[in-house]
Each structure stands twice: as structure tokens, then as C-alpha cells.
């Protein structure tokens, strides 16, 4: 995530401040990955939407940055953007502030890798989070989920995925 080395702790600005050198907005018709946020997740207070991501019609939209098809034939799609969720803050009026909330979870720059023949794939994302014990982990890339896009149809031709 970015050019510098980031450290997982209460002082990290990931998810709080725009990342240097990243586009902060894109045209409405720009290709994007939409993540529909269920009401119980939305209740965790989406505090910051940065680095090209946006919140629109109940979903986080991650801007499509690039697609590629390496020699192994798997399709890779890189998305950009950063979102931060905070909840369970102290009741002293400080608001949703890093270090003052029991839940502080940042997701950034998801990417998908999938095999168009089998439909199997994975969704990876960079994350930075406060742990239950009060420590911090990340920012690091984690596997967020396995995908099965076998019911869909994909075509990769001349560097374009449709």
C-alpha cells in the first residue's frame, strides 16, 4: 500500500487521510467494483471514504485501476480506494477517533484474481485493524474471500475484460 513503509498502530494515518499521489475522485461512469454493505456492517460507521473509493446508493464503490491477463491465463483486476469503519467509541464526547474506538477497520485497494475457465477466484484486500486485545495489525494484504464466478461469462481480449 503506497510507496512508504506503514506501521500498524494508533498513529497510522491509513484510512484517515488521503494517500499521497492517489486520485481522490473519478467520473461517475468509471468502472468500479460495488460492495453492497449490509445494515449490520453499515452500523459500524463508515467514517472515511478516500483514494478514489466512493459510497453510492448503499455500496462502497472501488475504482477499477487496471486489468491484466498473465501467461497463466488468470484474469487480475486491481481496484483502488480506501474505507475506514469505526464504532464503539468512548462516551466522553471525543467522537470517532483512532485509538478511541474499539472497532477501527480500514480496507484498501482490493484486487481480484480468477480463472475464467473454472470461474474460481479470490478477493484480496489490504487492511489495517485494531485487534480485540488492543494491538494493531496491518497494513497487509489478506485474502478476504473465495469467489465462484462460474455462472458469469467473461472475455479477455486485447487487454480488455468484459
Structure, described:
- The protein is an all-beta fold and 162 residues long.
- The chain has one domain (32-154).
- It is 2% helix and 49% strand.
- It contains 1 helix and 11 strands, in the order βαββββββββββ.
- The chain has one helix spanning 39-42, and strands spanning 32-36, 46-50, 54-56, 59-68, 75-80, 82-89, 101-114, 120-130, 136-148, 156-157, 160-161.
- The strands form 2 sheets. Strands 1, 2, 3, 4, 5, 6, 7, 8 and 9 form a 9-stranded antiparallel β-sheet that branches.
- A hairpin with a 5-residue loop joins strand 8 and strand 9.
- The longest helix is centred in the first third of the chain and has 4 residues, at 39-42.
- The radius of gyration is 17 Å and the shape is elongated.
- Residues 1-5 have low confidence and may be disordered.
- Pfam families: HtaA (PF04213).
- This is HtaA domain-containing protein.
- InterPro entries: Htaa.
- Residues 33-162 form the Htaa domain.
What level of helicity do the residues show? under 10%
**Helix-strand makeup class:** mainly beta
- Span between termini: 27 Å
Mean pLDDT value: 81
The general outline is: elongated
Count of alpha/pi helices: 1
Detail the poorly predicted runs.
1-5
* Count of folded domains: 1
Percent strand equals over 45%
Total number of β-strand segments?
Answer: 11
Major beta sheet, specifics?
9 strands, antiparallel
**Order of SSEs, N→C?**
EHEEEEEEEEEE
Integer-rounded radius of gyration: 17 Å
Amino acid at each position: 500500500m503506497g510507496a512508504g513503509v506503514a506501521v500498524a498502530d494508533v498513529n497510522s494515518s491509513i484510512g484517515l487521510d488521503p494517500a499521497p499521489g492517489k486520485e481522490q475522485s473519478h467520473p461517475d461512469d468509471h468502472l468500479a467494483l460495488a460492495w453492497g454493505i449490509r445494515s449490520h456492517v453499515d452500523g459500524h460507521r463508515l467514517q472515511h471514504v478516500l483514494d478514489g473509493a466512493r459510497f453510492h446508493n448503499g455500496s462502497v464503490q472501488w475504482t477499477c485501476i487496471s486489468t491484466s491477463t498473465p501467461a497463466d491465463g488468470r484474469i487480475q483486476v486491481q481496484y483502488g480506494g480506501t474505507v475506514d469503519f469505526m464504532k464503539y467509541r468512548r462516551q466522553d464526547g471525543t467522537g470517532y477517533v483512532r485509538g478511541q474506538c474499539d472497532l477501527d477497520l480500514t480496507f484498501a485497494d482490493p484486487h481480484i484474481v480468477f480463472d475464467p475457465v473454472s470461474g474460481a477466484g479470490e478477493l484480496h484486500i489490504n487492511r489495517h485493524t485494531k485487534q480485540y486485545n488492543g494491538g494493531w495489525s496491518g497494513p497487509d494484504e489478506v485474502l478476504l474471500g473465495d469467489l465462484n464466478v462460474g455462472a458469469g461469462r467473461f472475455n479477455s481480449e486485447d487487454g480488455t475484460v468484459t
